[in-house]
Amino acid sequence: MQVSDSDDNRFATGCKPVFRKGAVVTEPSTEIGIGILGGGYMGKAHSVAMASVGAVFDTALRPRLEMICASTPESAERYRAAFGFVRATDDWRVLVQDPQVEAIVIATPQLTHREIAEAAFALGKPVLCEKPMGADLADAEAMVAAAEGSGTANMVGYNYIRTPASQFARKLISDGVIGDVTWFRGEHTEDFLADPKAPATWRTDGMANGTMGDLAPHMINAALALIGPIDSLIAEAETVHKTRPGGEVTNDDHAQIMCRFANGTMGHMFFSRIATGRKMGYAYEITGTKGAIRFDQEDQNAIWLYKMSDDEAERGFRKILTGPAHPDYEPFCQGPGHGTGYQDQIIIEARDFLDAIHSGQPVWPTFRDGLDVARIVHTALASAQTRSWLNIHPKG
């Protein structure tokens, strides 16, 4: 897809974020066969996104829902019929190797990500992989090596940072509206396991499924996008409800990180799946020398901005409702304050993935960007064991 530089805000790696109100297609669209692995929560979200993205953004590449894979033939066929795929399979290898599947979305449990991604890259097929990239740091490193060795488009599915409000926050910071950033506080808090009587499930078994593997990557990704690289940290991770009906809990319920960013900013992040009352507590506060920003995903269509340059009698946080003047809003709705939703984040993500394939240029966050998140999670877990400050990139 050809777009003018002034309209591009795809978070291209290393680039300053700017506005993009919609794609400007200068050539006929081309069909591309999409294969999606997993038909559950995220499998459905990606299927709907790929079915919608062409109409929303008028993309140069138009997805064809070619094949979906699930754990059994029955569930695969059920998802195929529900989501509109041409074919279905219960064998991921069949999907990856099929010549009609030209790009792949991985929405399966993280223990499976590495093997699927390596197989796809070996065939030169682009991959969009849900977070976290793999089960551990070794998986993430191997997946980056496979991605970069193939020279093929690759992305990690961090959708929340793509809301028009958070894209606008990133631009405000980049443009210096709040001055030099001095403090960052972020959280990803939910309460889906707040009840100690909730039964043990796959979410309560294995470190990759704990809060540090499941929720923390989203806010760590946001911190890196908004503030920049993290130099060092100290962390705690804790299992509050050690047993549940049906079994022992083997991973963490909540965790916190105190950190220092490479640009000198101080920071703190908290993650929890037992935060009573929180449903989608993806929130951050950013303090600068000229102003401050607040955002909460439970009110995802608003951002709060404070500017010291305002008249003292009127100085205070003001609520800004997103609208067509903000990044990636207008393609969904022309009415200010009407708002976008969770599914729209995934559609924006699909647009970026298709752009990366079509342009041949990396679009943030690539697998290497996902590795940065995995390295911070790995370091935080190590810090929680030693109860000490650790460098993200140890010297020597």
Automatic annotation (TrEMBL):
<dbReference type="GO" id="GO:0016491">
    <property type="term" value="F:oxidoreductase activity"/>
</dbReference>
<feature type="domain" description="GFO/IDH/MocA-like oxidoreductase">
    <location>
        <begin position="168"/>
        <end position="294"/>
    </location>
</feature>
<dbReference type="InterPro" id="IPR036291">
    <property type="entry name" value="NAD(P)-bd_dom_sf"/>
</dbReference>
<dbReference type="Pfam" id="PF01408">
    <property type="entry name" value="GFO_IDH_MocA"/>
</dbReference>
<feature type="domain" description="Gfo/Idh/MocA-like oxidoreductase N-terminal">
    <location>
        <begin position="33"/>
        <end position="158"/>
    </location>
</feature>
<dbReference type="InterPro" id="IPR055170">
    <property type="entry name" value="GFO_IDH_MocA-like_dom"/>
</dbReference>
<dbReference type="InterPro" id="IPR000683">
    <property type="entry name" value="Gfo/Idh/MocA-like_OxRdtase_N"/>
</dbReference>
<protein>
    <submittedName>
        <fullName>Putative oxidoreductase</fullName>
    </submittedName>
</protein>
<dbReference type="Pfam" id="PF22725">
    <property type="entry name" value="GFO_IDH_MocA_C3"/>
</dbReference>
<keyword id="KW-0560">Oxidoreductase</keyword>
<dbReference type="GO" id="GO:0000166">
    <property type="term" value="F:nucleotide binding"/>
</dbReference>
<dbReference type="InterPro" id="IPR050463">
    <property type="entry name" value="Gfo/Idh/MocA_oxidrdct_glycsds"/>
</dbReference>
